[in-house]
């Protein structure tokens, strides 16, 4: 009975293994930010290697297998549909795998196996994709201030300066990202400004917001009242002046009616004689 050469047997076994799920006993973990490029080396690169095989098992997806047979420079793949995952260069020179660009869906196990004349070698990576959150700070209702770290992976941590009466909630978004929202108020404190600090593995960020204290709010209301009173006095004085110089009385009344209507008061002009 004719038997296949050892290299053919190893190559066939590499593709049969593509149907097995990756248990992922990771030799190393690799954290990569989304939308960047990741390169996964395949150690060891031995000159006696016959076949190099990558088994790619992203989270919640069927495994894909890429293999290269060095003696005849043959490259094959099985069940691989993601064009962002490929050999970094020529696999006969460098068997490293690249992901460009990295997406959230690339979380998972990546195992490289080298079948050589002196044995079978392998290395498994557990790839974790990081997503920086979008941080915002704004005024909420009832005097609260809201700090939001949206769609981060993993979830962010929020800290306030000064500390207040705060309520923090997390909302998983279903794709592995999490939105964290913290609401605070400082009812019994004279706080003029606050800062929200967001801590995340991709980097930290702080935002600041200026608040109005009770005294400042009273001062602003007083200024607004005085300004409104002066405006009313000027409008009345201008109307009387127009009346006295013989302008159209009907036009003046229309002007006054429009002004008071805007301020919530309506005065009728029935019986006004048109004198121009």
TrEMBL record:
Segments passing through the bilayer: 223-243
GO BP term (any one): regulation of neuroinflammatory response
Every Ig-like domain range: 95-208
Entry superkingdom: Eukaryota
Topology in the lipid bilayer: Single-pass type I membrane protein
GO cellular component terms listed in the entry, alphabetical order: external side of plasma membrane
Record has Cell membrane as a keyword: no
Keyword Membrane listed: yes
InterPro entries, alphabetized: CD200R (IPR040012), Ig-like_dom (IPR007110), Ig-like_dom_sf (IPR036179), Ig-like_fold (IPR013783), Ig_sub (IPR003599), Ig_V-set (IPR013106)
Pfam families given in the database record: V-set (PF07686)
Family: Belongs to the CD200R family.
Name under which the protein is recorded: Ig-like domain-containing protein
